[in-house]
Write a structure and sequence with these properties.
The chain has 10 helices and no strands. With about 240 residues, it is mostly helical.
Protein backbone atom coordinates (compact mmCIF):
# COMPACT_ATOMS: atom_id res chain seq x y z
CA UNK A 1 0.00 0.00 0.00
CA UNK A 2 2.99 2.28 0.43
CA UNK A 3 3.35 2.71 -3.34
CA UNK A 4 -0.08 4.27 -3.86
CA UNK A 5 -0.09 7.76 -5.40
CA UNK A 6 -0.42 10.36 -2.65
CA UNK A 7 -3.42 12.03 -4.23
CA UNK A 8 -5.61 8.95 -3.63
CA UNK A 9 -5.13 9.05 0.13
CA UNK A 10 -5.41 12.85 0.16
CA UNK A 11 -8.70 12.88 -1.72
CA UNK A 12 -10.12 10.22 0.57
CA UNK A 13 -9.01 12.01 3.75
CA UNK A 14 -10.64 15.22 2.55
CA UNK A 15 -13.78 13.32 1.55
CA UNK A 16 -14.06 11.72 4.98
CA UNK A 17 -13.57 15.03 6.78
CA UNK A 18 -16.22 16.70 4.61
CA UNK A 19 -18.62 13.81 5.25
CA UNK A 20 -18.18 14.12 9.00
CA UNK A 21 -18.58 17.91 8.94
CA UNK A 22 -21.74 17.79 6.83
CA UNK A 23 -23.25 15.26 9.19
CA UNK A 24 -22.35 17.45 12.17
CA UNK A 25 -24.08 20.40 10.51
CA UNK A 26 -27.22 18.26 10.19
CA UNK A 27 -27.40 17.77 13.96
CA UNK A 28 -28.55 20.09 16.72
CA UNK A 29 -25.61 18.93 18.86
CA UNK A 30 -22.88 20.02 16.45
CA UNK A 31 -20.03 20.22 18.96
CA UNK A 32 -20.83 16.95 20.71
CA UNK A 33 -21.17 15.08 17.41
CA UNK A 34 -17.94 16.61 16.11
CA UNK A 35 -16.04 15.58 19.23
CA UNK A 36 -17.35 12.01 19.03
CA UNK A 37 -16.56 11.63 15.33
CA UNK A 38 -13.12 13.19 15.76
CA UNK A 39 -12.31 10.84 18.64
CA UNK A 40 -13.48 7.82 16.64
CA UNK A 41 -11.42 8.77 13.57
CA UNK A 42 -8.30 9.48 15.63
CA UNK A 43 -8.69 6.19 17.51
CA UNK A 44 -9.05 4.20 14.29
CA UNK A 45 -6.13 6.10 12.76
CA UNK A 46 -3.90 5.16 15.69
CA UNK A 47 -4.97 1.51 15.51
CA UNK A 48 -4.81 1.32 11.72
CA UNK A 49 -1.38 2.89 11.35
CA UNK A 50 0.03 0.24 13.67
CA UNK A 51 -1.00 -2.40 11.15
CA UNK A 52 -3.63 -3.91 13.42
CA UNK A 53 -6.13 -4.60 10.63
CA UNK A 54 -3.62 -6.02 8.14
CA UNK A 55 -3.59 -9.34 9.99
CA UNK A 56 -6.43 -11.18 8.28
CA UNK A 57 -5.93 -14.51 10.06
CA UNK A 58 -7.18 -13.75 13.56
CA UNK A 59 -10.32 -15.30 15.01
CA UNK A 60 -12.59 -13.39 15.35
CA UNK A 61 -11.50 -11.13 12.46
CA UNK A 62 -10.09 -7.78 13.59
CA UNK A 63 -12.10 -6.20 10.78
CA UNK A 64 -15.15 -6.46 13.04
CA UNK A 65 -13.73 -3.71 15.25
CA UNK A 66 -14.13 -1.36 12.29
CA UNK A 67 -17.75 -2.12 11.50
CA UNK A 68 -19.49 -3.45 14.60
CA UNK A 69 -19.22 -0.36 16.88
CA UNK A 70 -20.84 1.99 14.30
CA UNK A 71 -23.56 -0.54 13.51
CA UNK A 72 -24.35 -1.09 17.17
CA UNK A 73 -24.44 2.67 17.69
CA UNK A 74 -26.95 3.06 14.84
CA UNK A 75 -29.12 0.32 16.34
CA UNK A 76 -28.95 2.07 19.72
CA UNK A 77 -30.17 5.31 18.14
CA UNK A 78 -33.29 3.57 16.85
CA UNK A 79 -34.16 1.61 20.00
CA UNK A 80 -33.61 4.29 22.67
CA UNK A 81 -35.82 7.33 23.30
CA UNK A 82 -32.87 9.72 23.27
CA UNK A 83 -31.57 8.16 20.08
CA UNK A 84 -34.92 8.54 18.35
CA UNK A 85 -35.07 12.20 19.38
CA UNK A 86 -31.61 12.67 17.88
CA UNK A 87 -32.73 11.06 14.62
CA UNK A 88 -35.90 13.14 14.41
CA UNK A 89 -33.95 16.36 14.93
CA UNK A 90 -31.51 15.68 12.10
CA UNK A 91 -31.83 18.07 9.16
CA UNK A 92 -32.98 15.96 6.21
CA UNK A 93 -32.01 18.69 3.74
CA UNK A 94 -28.41 18.57 4.88
CA UNK A 95 -28.43 14.77 4.99
CA UNK A 96 -29.50 14.75 1.34
CA UNK A 97 -26.54 16.94 0.36
CA UNK A 98 -24.24 14.59 2.29
CA UNK A 99 -24.82 11.88 -0.32
CA UNK A 100 -22.87 13.88 -2.93
CA UNK A 101 -19.68 12.64 -1.25
CA UNK A 102 -20.39 9.27 -2.83
CA UNK A 103 -18.96 10.69 -6.08
CA UNK A 104 -15.39 11.18 -4.76
CA UNK A 105 -15.67 7.89 -2.86
CA UNK A 106 -16.38 6.09 -6.13
CA UNK A 107 -13.46 7.84 -7.80
CA UNK A 108 -11.19 6.71 -4.96
CA UNK A 109 -12.41 3.13 -5.34
CA UNK A 110 -11.68 3.26 -9.05
CA UNK A 111 -8.16 4.56 -8.41
CA UNK A 112 -7.63 1.82 -5.84
CA UNK A 113 -8.75 -0.76 -8.38
CA UNK A 114 -6.30 0.67 -10.91
CA UNK A 115 -3.58 0.15 -8.29
CA UNK A 116 -4.74 -3.43 -7.65
CA UNK A 117 -5.84 -3.12 -4.02
CA UNK A 118 -9.61 -3.51 -4.56
CA UNK A 119 -11.45 -5.64 -7.15
CA UNK A 120 -13.11 -4.20 -10.23
CA UNK A 121 -16.52 -5.29 -8.99
CA UNK A 122 -16.21 -2.64 -6.24
CA UNK A 123 -16.10 0.14 -8.85
CA UNK A 124 -18.63 1.69 -11.22
CA UNK A 125 -17.06 -0.47 -13.94
CA UNK A 126 -18.14 -3.55 -12.02
CA UNK A 127 -21.13 -4.15 -9.77
CA UNK A 128 -21.04 -0.88 -7.82
CA UNK A 129 -23.79 1.52 -8.88
CA UNK A 130 -23.56 3.73 -5.79
CA UNK A 131 -22.34 6.70 -7.82
CA UNK A 132 -25.95 7.08 -9.02
CA UNK A 133 -26.87 8.22 -5.51
CA UNK A 134 -24.09 10.80 -5.51
CA UNK A 135 -25.00 12.20 -8.92
CA UNK A 136 -28.72 12.42 -8.18
CA UNK A 137 -28.39 13.84 -4.65
CA UNK A 138 -28.03 17.50 -5.77
CA UNK A 139 -31.08 17.09 -8.02
CA UNK A 140 -33.13 15.59 -5.21
CA UNK A 141 -32.04 18.39 -2.89
CA UNK A 142 -32.90 21.11 -5.41
CA UNK A 143 -36.23 19.78 -6.64
CA UNK A 144 -37.27 18.32 -3.30
CA UNK A 145 -36.21 21.00 -0.82
CA UNK A 146 -35.73 24.17 -2.87
CA UNK A 147 -38.37 23.97 -5.62
CA UNK A 148 -40.65 21.53 -3.74
CA UNK A 149 -41.45 19.61 -6.90
CA UNK A 150 -40.62 16.21 -5.45
CA UNK A 151 -43.14 14.89 -2.95
CA UNK A 152 -42.77 12.72 0.13
CA UNK A 153 -43.29 9.45 -1.75
CA UNK A 154 -40.59 10.22 -4.32
CA UNK A 155 -38.16 11.29 -1.59
CA UNK A 156 -38.90 8.08 0.27
CA UNK A 157 -38.41 6.00 -2.88
CA UNK A 158 -35.10 7.71 -3.68
CA UNK A 159 -33.78 7.11 -0.18
CA UNK A 160 -34.83 3.45 -0.23
CA UNK A 161 -33.26 2.83 -3.65
CA UNK A 162 -30.02 4.59 -2.71
CA UNK A 163 -29.89 2.69 0.58
CA UNK A 164 -30.17 -0.47 -1.49
CA UNK A 165 -27.27 0.68 -3.69
CA UNK A 166 -25.20 1.24 -0.56
CA UNK A 167 -26.03 -2.17 0.89
CA UNK A 168 -25.11 -3.76 -2.45
CA UNK A 169 -21.55 -2.36 -2.44
CA UNK A 170 -21.12 -3.01 1.28
CA UNK A 171 -21.91 -6.70 0.77
CA UNK A 172 -19.55 -6.90 -2.21
CA UNK A 173 -16.78 -5.10 -0.31
CA UNK A 174 -17.09 -7.29 2.80
CA UNK A 175 -17.21 -10.52 0.82
CA UNK A 176 -14.13 -9.43 -1.14
CA UNK A 177 -11.93 -9.03 1.95
CA UNK A 178 -9.44 -11.92 2.30
CA UNK A 179 -11.14 -13.40 5.34
CA UNK A 180 -12.53 -16.91 5.96
CA UNK A 181 -15.94 -15.85 4.59
CA UNK A 182 -14.55 -14.33 1.35
CA UNK A 183 -16.74 -15.13 -1.66
CA UNK A 184 -15.54 -12.74 -4.37
CA UNK A 185 -12.39 -11.38 -6.00
CA UNK A 186 -9.89 -14.04 -5.05
CA UNK A 187 -7.53 -12.81 -7.78
CA UNK A 188 -7.62 -9.19 -6.59
CA UNK A 189 -9.15 -9.01 -3.11
CA UNK A 190 -10.22 -5.95 -1.17
CA UNK A 191 -7.13 -5.22 0.94
CA UNK A 192 -7.29 -1.42 0.89
CA UNK A 193 -9.70 -1.18 3.82
CA UNK A 194 -7.10 -2.74 6.11
CA UNK A 195 -4.87 0.33 5.72
CA UNK A 196 -5.07 3.96 6.75
CA UNK A 197 -6.81 6.14 5.61
CA UNK A 198 -9.13 3.70 3.84
CA UNK A 199 -10.14 2.11 7.15
CA UNK A 200 -12.23 5.27 7.51
CA UNK A 201 -14.55 4.00 4.77
CA UNK A 202 -16.13 1.12 6.74
CA UNK A 203 -15.80 2.76 10.16
CA UNK A 204 -17.07 6.26 9.36
CA UNK A 205 -18.11 7.17 5.82
CA UNK A 206 -20.37 4.18 5.15
CA UNK A 207 -22.07 4.31 8.58
CA UNK A 208 -22.78 8.04 8.21
CA UNK A 209 -24.20 7.57 4.72
CA UNK A 210 -26.32 4.66 5.92
CA UNK A 211 -27.53 6.58 8.97
CA UNK A 212 -28.42 9.56 6.79
CA UNK A 213 -30.72 7.39 4.69
CA UNK A 214 -32.25 5.59 7.66
CA UNK A 215 -32.90 8.83 9.56
CA UNK A 216 -34.48 10.49 6.53
CA UNK A 217 -36.65 7.44 5.85
CA UNK A 218 -37.77 7.49 9.49
CA UNK A 219 -38.70 11.18 9.21
CA UNK A 220 -40.54 10.65 5.94
CA UNK A 221 -42.55 7.78 7.38
CA UNK A 222 -43.21 9.46 10.72
CA UNK A 223 -43.98 13.03 9.67
CA UNK A 224 -46.44 12.53 6.82
CA UNK A 225 -48.91 15.19 7.95
CA UNK A 226 -46.20 17.70 8.73
CA UNK A 227 -44.54 17.18 5.35
CA UNK A 228 -47.80 17.49 3.44
CA UNK A 229 -48.80 20.69 5.21
CA UNK A 230 -45.41 22.39 5.25
CA UNK A 231 -43.59 23.33 2.05
CA UNK A 232 -40.29 23.49 3.89
CA UNK A 233 -40.60 19.69 3.97
CA UNK A 234 -38.57 19.30 7.15
CA UNK A 235 -38.25 21.74 10.00
CA UNK A 236 -36.64 19.30 12.42
CA UNK A 237 -32.99 20.12 12.83
CA UNK A 238 -33.23 23.54 11.18
CA UNK A 239 -32.86 25.43 14.39
Amino acid sequence: MGNLPTYISLVFIITTIITALIFCVATINYKTTLVLLTFWLILQTFIGRRGFYTDMHTNPPRFLLLVLPPLLFIVALFVTPGGRRFLDNLNAKTLTILHTIRIPVELVLFWLFANKVVPQMMTFEGRNFDIIAGVTAPLVFYFGFVKHRIGRKMLLLWNIICLGLLINIVVIAVLSVPLPFQKFAFDQPNIAIAYFPFIWLPCCVVPLVMLSHLATIRQLLGNKRKIVNNKSMFNSGDQ
